[in-house]
Amino acid sequence: MPENSKQQVAPKKESTSTHQKQPQQPKFPSEIIDLPTKGLMYPEGHPLSKGTIEIKYMTAREEDILTSANLIKKGVVIDELLKSMIISDVNYDDLYIGDKNAVMLSARVLGYGKDYVTDVDCPECGNTEKDCSFDLTSFEYKEIDEGYLNRDNKYEFTLPNSNRKVEFRFITHKDEKAIDKEVTRLAKISGGISPEMTTRLRYQIVSVDGDDSTETVANFIKNELFAIDSRALRDHMIEKMPDVDFTTYYGCPSCGENSEMDLPISTNFFWPSR
After folding, report:
1. Any idea where the domains of the chain sit in the sequence?
2. Are 268 and 78 in contact (CB under 8 A)?
């Protein structure tokens, strides 16, 4: 290009666009919640294997869910609430029950605060005390015992009475949905008797004395499992399952006894009196 020549630059045209850049919406407040399983019970690479889950604070939209007569009637109102509050890209069905309980507890604290007021029936004398207050932030996790952990989710237990060996597994929300559906179906054809305990055990027990056939397990639970062994197995599974420890202590003003009990979670857990 000659030294004296000037490069022609096209003049900038005035923008005639009426579109303006929209300001970014601020991110709604959320919290990262630790899980009792520490993520160790999920497959490697699974979104929950990090051991945490992100949930947002409750909004008026979630209150619409809580007051939905249709969801309440179906018995899914709490699950729909938690799904709405979870931000992490996870499949809700994959949550182990203890992890789901941790999400539920945190959701309640983020929604309405740590104070939970409910009526309590004394385990000793049966007296009902109105408006007992509990601090929900005082309940701790019963985390997975890493020395006990089996990545295959199969755990062995010897029944104390019969000395038979069973393998069991911890269940997820997906399992719990299937159990509820089957219990409802079976109750309709069994004269109103709800076979919840035996149905749950069929989903939890994997094998009996090394035999993992569905027929063997079902027959064992229905015809061969002593009540004393059933209780021992259930107690062992509760002891080992990662979960929220809802154990609390209650001093009854009526009989004066101090009792250990589970936190009474009633219908007003997510809808405190105002």
Report:
1. 30-143, 155-241
2. no
235, 236, 180: which is closest to 203 by C-alpha?
A: 180
The pair of structure tokens assigned to 27 is: 């991110």
Q: What is the pTM of this model?
A: 0.85
**Residues 205-263 pLDDT 10s:** 999 999 999 999 999 999 999 999 999 999 999 999 999 999 999 999 999 999 999 99
What is the C-alpha to C-alpha distance for residues 267 and 52, in angstroms, rounded to an integer? Answer: 27
SS (H, E, C) the chain: CCCCCCCCCCCCCCCCCCCCCCCCCCCCCEEEEECCCCCCCCCCCCHHHHCEEEEECCCHHHHHHHCCHHHHHHCCHHHHHHHHHECCCCCHHHCEHHHHHHHHHHHHHHHHCCEEEEEEECCCCCCEEEEEEEEHHHCCEECCCCCCCCCCCCEEEECCCCCCEEEECCCEHHHHHHHHHHHHHHHHHCCCCCCHHHHHHHHHEEEECCECCHHHHHHHHHHHCCHHHHHHHHHHHHHHCCEECCEEEEECCCCCCEEEEECCCCCCCCCCCC
* CA dist., res. 227 & res. 122, Å (int): 27
Q: Residue 67: which residues within 8 A CB-CB, separation 6 or more? A: 271
Residue range 27-78, pLDDT digits in tens: 789 999 999 999 999 999 999 999 999 999 999 999 999 999 999 899 899 9
